[in-house]
Every structure is written in C-alpha cells, then in structure tokens.
C-alpha cells in the first residue's frame, strides 16, 4: 500500500487509505525521475554513489548497514528488501500488513527487527526515536514521511545527524507541496514498472545489481507471459473492492480501487477496470446506485486484515449486487498486497488472469 496522508487528526490511517484510489499506488511515468538512480548495471556499484532523490542529493559511501524502513502504511519497500535478500541490512522495520498474496511474506516481515519503535498519532516513527536509533539510512514510501508538521524527522535534520534518507522515487510528489510537474506525472501514472524500478534502485544502492536484475527479469517475465496469453482476448470488466476499507467511502461502501497500478494490473491480466477513467474522488464518493449499476464481469476481493475471509466477502457483495454479471456467474478471486506498489504484482496479475480468462 502506498497512501497519501491527511493532516487532519481524524485517523490518518483512514485518510491515507483514501489516497490508494487517488494514485493507484503504483506507472511508468516516473522513469525519467529515477532513470539514473534506478538503472541497475550488472557490475559492482562504484562508491561514493550520488544521485538526486526527490530534489535532494543523496550520497552513499558504501552499502547501508543500519536501515530504518518507515511505515507509510506500505509494505512495498520492506517486501522489496526481503526479495533482494537484504534483511541483514535492516536495523528496524515499521511496515507490516498481516495478509499477503505471498503467504511467506507475513512471517518474513514479522521476523524483522522493529528496534522497539512506537508510532505517533500520525502512524509513523516520531523524529526523536529515529534520531536516537542512529540508522545510516531511513527509507520512506512517500515524501510526507519526512514532514516535521506530523512529528517526523526532516531530511535536513537527518542529514545534519549524518543519516541518509531515501524516498521511493515514484512517490516524490506524495506529501511534497513543492513537487515538480515531472514528479506529479510520475505519481499519477504509477504502474507495475514502478515496482520494478524501486528494486533496481535498491540493487544499485546496496551493490546487489545482479540480484536485482535477475529479480526484475523474473517478475517482468511472469507479467509478460500473462499479457501475451490474453493479448488477443476480449477485455472483461474487473472490479477491485476492499470491504475492510469501507472507512474510505463516505457511504460506507467497500473501497473501489481505480487508476495507476490497479488499472495496470487489471490490464495485464486481460481486463479493464470497471471504473476506469474515474477521478480520485471515486472511492470517497461512490454511492450504492453507482456500484449496483456498474458492469462487473469479474470481482476481485481485496483483503485488508487477516480476519477477513475472501469467500465470505465475495458472497456478501454478490448478494448485495445481484445484477452484476460476476454475481450471476460467481466469478471472483481474492488478493491483498499484490495490487499495491511493491514486488508482488506478478502474483496478482497471474491470479486475476485465471478468472478473467480461465482456460485460455
């Protein structure tokens, strides 16, 4: 997950989740922003390594050894570290989700050190705790993770303490009022490629380029294999709905995810988002009539908490919206973090494609 943040005191987690529909949490438009940093050459990294990250020059004298990963209600960053075998470089991790399209991720994330850190009212690690921990790198999924107004350490504070900071480049514009137009475009146009580019960036920073290239190649090949299989088949209307995120909707409806990486995952699986073309307000303002009259050939139930049961949630939605083609044919699948910005997109594409075009 890769949410935007609200500064209103009412449950930042709620307002943060709303942003998932605004950006799709994952596009290729950011390529220009991170091209120099994310390219992962096969050779060894030459240190010192310097590049621009969201308008701030960062320099690495060697691979970081004491990394703090901020929460940001995301798991994409910590999952990328894990899939690159960088667990030993993590001093403390604040990201967790509790349910995953790769079940092994749950235990792997839980096994990471937390550094005894606690969250402030804005659901991330406060400045004083970050500085006391003395990491050599702090990673945030969004620029807002370094906002002093919400109690977080600024990038300037960290630099003054000898600590490097890094924002997932596709999210530079998130929580950055002075974001450039290029950063805004990258943020709006997130895609599966965005997830792979962050892996490439980590490969260069931590001098594991070959590992990163191999992982990117494997994940990209899995997605492209599905794209090829479904390329000449008619696109079906797919709805991604998270019942457990009903707090995001003014009418208490399941959170319906549109745009960015959600649309890209659906397209790769051979479908088209049932609410394609909707604005960022869609999830917040969608009403029951709009949901009931939507064309839905395939339902994708998103799980937000471990307590939710996908089959039961699908049954509830089918009972509530019997006119959907998906309700009549009982066509659905269940995902969790695979549709968010992160390294598990290939699994979600494969899973969704099996119900969009079964047997093809």
From TrEMBL:
Q: Where is the signal peptide?
A: 1-24
PANTHER family per the UniProt record, alphabetical: HEMIN-BINDING PERIPLASMIC PROTEIN HMUT, VITAMIN B12-BINDING PROTEIN
Q: What is this protein called?
A: ABC transporter substrate-binding protein
Which keywords accompany this UniProt record? Answer: Signal
User: Family assignment?
Assistant: Belongs to the bacterial solute-binding protein 8 family.
PROSITE patterns per UniProt: FE_B12_PBP, PROKAR_LIPOPROTEIN
Recorded hits in InterPro entries, A to Z, give:
ABC_Transporter_SBP, ABC_transptr_periplasmic_BD
Q: Where is the Fe/B12 periplasmic-binding domain?
A: 69-360
């Amino acid at each position: 997950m890769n949410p935007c943040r609200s500064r209103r005191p009412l449950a930042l987690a709620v307002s943060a989740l709303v942003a998932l529909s605004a950006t799709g949490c994952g596009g290729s438009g950011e390529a220009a922003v991170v091209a120099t940093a994310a390219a992962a050459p096969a050779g060894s990294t030459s240190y010192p390594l310097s590049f621009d990250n969201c308008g701030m020059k960062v320099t690495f004298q060697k691979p970081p050894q004491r990394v703090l990963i901020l929460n940001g209600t995301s798991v994409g960053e910590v999952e990328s570290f894990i899939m690159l075998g960088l667990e030993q470089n993590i001093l403390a991790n604040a990201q967790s989700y509790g349910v995953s399209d790769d079940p092994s991720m749950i235990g792997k994330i839980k096994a990471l050190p937390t550094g005894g850190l606690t969250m402030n009212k804005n659901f991330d690690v406060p400045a004083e705790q970050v500085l006391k921990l003395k990491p050599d790198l702090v990673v945030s999924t969004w620029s807002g993770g370094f906002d002093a107004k919400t109690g977080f350490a600024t990038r300037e504070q960290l630099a003054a303490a000898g600590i490097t900071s890094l924002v997932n480049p596709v999210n530079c514009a998130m929580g950055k009022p002075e974001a450039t137009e290029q950063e805004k475009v990258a943020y709006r146009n997130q895609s599966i490629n965005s997830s792979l580019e962050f892996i490439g960036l980590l490969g260069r920073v931590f001098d594991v380029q070959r590992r990163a290239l191999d992982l990117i190649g494997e994940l990209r090949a899995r997605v492209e294999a599905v794209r090829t299989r479904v390329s000449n088949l008619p696109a079906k209307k797919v709805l991604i709905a998270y019942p457990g995120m009903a707090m995001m909707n003014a009418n208490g409806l399941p959170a319906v995810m549109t745009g960015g990486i959600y649309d890209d995952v659906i397209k790769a699986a051979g479908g088209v988002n049932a609410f394609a073309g909707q604005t960022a307000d869609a999830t917040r303002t969608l009403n029951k009539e709009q949901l009931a009259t939507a064309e839905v050939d395939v339902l994708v139930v998103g799980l937000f908490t471990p307590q939710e049961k996908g089959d039961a949630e699908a049954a509830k939605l089918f009972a509530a919206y019997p006119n959907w083609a998906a309700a009549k044919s009982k066509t659905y699948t269940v995902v969790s973090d695979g549709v968010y910005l992160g390294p598990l997109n290939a699994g979600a594409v494969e899973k969704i494609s099996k119900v969009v075009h079964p047997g093809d």
